[in-house]
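MODEL INPUT / OUTPUT PAIR
PAIR INDEX: 1
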Amino acid sequence: MAAVPRFTARSTEPADPAVPAPPAPPVHPVDRRVPPGRLLAGGFQHVAASYAGVVAPPLVLGAYVGLSPLEITFLVSAALFTAGIATLLQTIGFWKVGARMPFVNGVSFAGVAPMLAIADTHTPKRDALPVIFGAVMVAGALGFLLAPYFCKLVRFFPPVVSGTVITLIGITLLPVSFGWIQGGHPDRPASLTNLGLAGATLVTVLLLRRLLKGFLQQIAILLGLLAGTLIALPAGAVDLTPARHAALVGFPEPFHFGAPQFALSAIVSMCVLMLVCMTESTADMLALGEIVGREADEKTIAGGLRADTLGTALSPLFNGFANSAFAQNVGLVALTRVRSRFVVATCGLMFLLLGLSPVFASLIAVVPQPVLGGAGIVLFGTVAASGVNVLLKAGLDQGDNLLIAAVSLGMGMIPVVSRTFYGNTAIPETLKIILDSGVSAGCLTAVLLNLAFHHLRVRRPVRGD
């Protein structure tokens, strides 16, 4: 006799209101929305921390190629505008673009050297700008295509590698802070006034971190910058000239310096730079993942690299340059413990508005460099200390790991302590781009040594062979 199928009737009665609904899954701090006041204050703090890094490359390049002050101001506004686009792509994202982590993206200073080299091949040098923009567009497009493959290298970044790279990020950024204290002239001794302003800012930040609680403690860097600027006023160290002559509204006109041109040598140079930027961004994402408590897996890194490279490909349309993640903001997240990506997205929106209003952009420029330098010691030192913390988890008591960290840190420190170390050698220019970046040189060394010691199987000779 065939078995009769049994059916179970489903109850159509409403759920018992006395039974509590299952709790909603907790929202990770990275995805947590914060009140508008904290959004604005936190976003402005990130703007203040990264502003100098965003505007430095266009200032250096603009002056080098002979642009007028008005044109340099335009180039700076374009850099701010494109940094805003790249930061929003990184924090908010769409489709598979964006790490959706609290990352600030801006103009990569690593691109300055190859761009100056391209300018040297043109007369007048300003004619190199369309060639640079064309090369940046191609490099960004190539990087976007490579992102899903490049991210697979994350398995070669165990704690001994990532900790070494994070430490180098902080160490290589500290000279930037020292240069600010020297008034932007690293070859000159710091004046007594500059030392006093940097020291006052540093002490203020430390006191605020020690004495304040809650939200005010989180914005100690911003409050320290404001206090340092106020202290600098009677010392005559605050220059208000940029604010007086800046326009209220200005849109970065597409292809303002001419249609992009495509030269093979420039494209090769920028593609090498793009690989360097992708390596540094991968290291920054690993560092931020450790800090915010959300592992930067392959999917996250691929999305982050897509945001970097798409932002780079789009930037030349608005007269911008190659973008990458900013490590100084990683230090700010570590210090404040404000992990919401929406705070950094607010920073990106502020960059957009600053790029559209040169007069407001210039207001942040009035913060004296020594004041930025005093705060930078805290920010960049925090990044280095975070890397040391990761290294402590890497098992340095094992001889191989200790050797990997030691040699990699040594290689990464070479361009930090001597900018001319590789200058007069016969090393190809493309390789010099990698070696002249402490982060890239140390990262490459750590990855190769980790492969050699932990991945490659070496057959040991057996007695009797």
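PAIR INDEX: 2
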Amino acid sequence: MQGKTILENFILSLKLIEAKTLVDGLTKDEFENYILDLCYKSESIIYYSFVLDLLKSRETAFLHYIASIILAHPLCHIEGAYQAAFHHAQKAINWDEDDVELKEFLLFFNAIPDKLLNDQEAKILAEKVLKK
């Protein structure tokens, strides 16, 4: 918990180099939990901005996934958030085409009212997931 508070303080005070260094010492699960907790608590876009900053220096499937879940869940009330989240989810799969969990997450975009993933694409994707 102390790590989450330190991360929060670094990001809110725009000490992004220190925040990046802290994130480098976290597991993926820890980082995901910390950043989502902070986003749900504050509903601030600053945490998404931090993830974008990370993406600029090291683009990965995981960071696109994190950007996507931030936008699709705690920040979904922002105009265009689902579309941007869908974009990040697609980019995540482009970086790691074999990750079944990323494909399962992409199916979420077929279930939302905006239906960004159409039924035909969702069916093809679901079949790929079931094969794994």
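PAIR 2 NOTE: The radius of gyration is 15 Å.
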